[in-house]
Amino acid sequence: MRKPIIIGNWKMNGSIDSVKKFATEVSPVLKDVTIDCGIAAPFTLLSTLKNEFSDEFKVYAENMHFEDTGAYTGEVSADMLLDIGINSVIIGHSERRKYFGETDETVNQKLQKAATKGVNTIVCVGESLEEREAGKHFDIVLSMLEEDFKDIKEQDAQNIVIAYEPIWAIGTGKTATPEDAEEMCKQIRNKMASLYSNDLAETIKIQYGGSVKPANVKEIMSMPNIDGALVGGASLKAEDFIALITYNK
Ligand code: PEP
């Protein structure tokens, strides 16, 4: 019932030439792909990605500001993304939270702005290693959701994809076991039922992210509450990205 969604997150990598090469390899495969897929990329590469791929291929920005215009040097607004034909964005990635002062409050402001503007979002939540080792991971992640979704209406919340990304598994090669990832995603779905409704909880998509690669994607995707993956390192190489988006073939 929930169509799987696998999105690559290129972070601060790539060039116009590398996008073109990637598209040449990936585009021919897309006709056989039965899931939703796409790439989140730096602002400089978004237009090229849009031009190189057909419309079904989703192109995400990696961040946006919650204001429309103003004195926010270095920032980009929802309107600016829409202006170049980009209607999807990742909000609250742990690297933005860690290095750029993103908080649940700003994540919430960005989700509200995106909803107002009709921009699709993936919102990232996840615990640190210390939080997991202290047994606080469920409390941490569920309270992040409470704050991130504050004042977001059900009709807007249902279009938000939630990415559960344990910080200790991002870019480290350490993957949460499929069972651990499933356990958290199930808790997230239950939390969405209590924040909104059973209907919303049944339809909202939850991704897992953290060292997903061709070798483990199938097992992760087989978990009942995991509807997709947000993939960093393994999405940079066309060959690996193709293996990820055809995991079900
Ligand atoms: C990410 O960037 O969201 C991510 C999960 O990275 P990686 O797959 O490299 O761990």
Keywords, please?
single chain; 249 residues; alpha/beta; eight-stranded parallel β-sheet; 12 helices; 8 strands; 15% strand; binds phosphoenolpyruvate
Short description:
By secondary structure, this protein is α/β, with parallel strands linked by helices. It has helices spanning 16-26, 43-52, 78-83, 94-99, 104-117, 129-133, 137-148, 154-157, 178-195, 198-203, 217-221, 238-245, and strands spanning 5-9, 36-41, 58-61, 88-91, 120-125, 161-164, 206-209, 228-231.
What does this structure look like?
This protein has twelve helices and eight strands. α1 runs parallel beside α2 and α1 packs across α12 (about 240-245). An eight-stranded parallel β-sheet has the order 3-2-1-8-7-6-5-4. It starts with a strand and ends with a helix. The mean pLDDT is about 95. It is globular, with a radius of gyration of 17 Å. The chain is of the alpha/beta class. It binds phosphoenolpyruvate (PEP). Phosphoenolpyruvate binds near residues 210 and 212.
Report the radius of gyration as a whole number of Å.
17 Å
Largest sheet, described in full?
8 strands, parallel
Q: Give the strand content.
A: 5-15%
Beta strand count? 8
Mean pLDDT: 97
Bound molecules: phosphoenolpyruvate
Classification by helices and strands:
alpha/beta
The coarse overall form would be: globular
Order of helices and strands: EHEHEHEHHEHHHEHHEHEH
Q: Which regions contain 5 or more consecutive residues with pLDDT less than 50?
A: none
Count of alpha/pi helices? 12
The largest sheet has its strands arranged as 3-2-1-8-7-6-5-4
Work out the helicity level. Answer: 40-55%
CA distance, first residue to last residue:
18 Å
